Amino acid sequence: MPAYRLYRLDGADSISKAEWFEAADDADAIRKVRDKKLSVASEIWDGKRRVAKLDAAASR
After folding, report:
1. What is the phi/psi pair of residue 43, to 5°?
2. What does the alpha-carbon distance between residue 45 and residue 26 come to, in Å, rounded to a whole number?
3. What's the average model confidence in pLDDT over 4-23?
4. Residue 60: its pLDDT value, please?
5. Gyration radius (Cα) of the chain, Å
6. What pTM was estimated for this model as a whole?
7. pLDDT tens by residue, 29-59
8. Burial class (CB in 10 A: 0-12, 13-18, 19+), 6
9. CB contact burial 16-55 (16+ within 10 A = b; e otherwise)
């Protein structure tokens, strides 16, 4: 399974927290992050490629 990075962003779009997780593909990675129902914006990365940027509302 590919390893993805989840970056939680602060109000200035700077990384406030990072975590690594596995997902079958991009769609699975996005679903896993949305399931967390984050209260902050976030970005999902696969290596040097940004998979998605989710605002706080999209994560809920």
Report:
1. -130, 145
2. 9
3. 96
4. 52
5. 10
6. 0.90
7. 999 999 999 999 999 999 999 999 999 876 5
8. buried
9. eeeeeeebeeeeebbebbeeeebeebbbbbbeeeebbebe
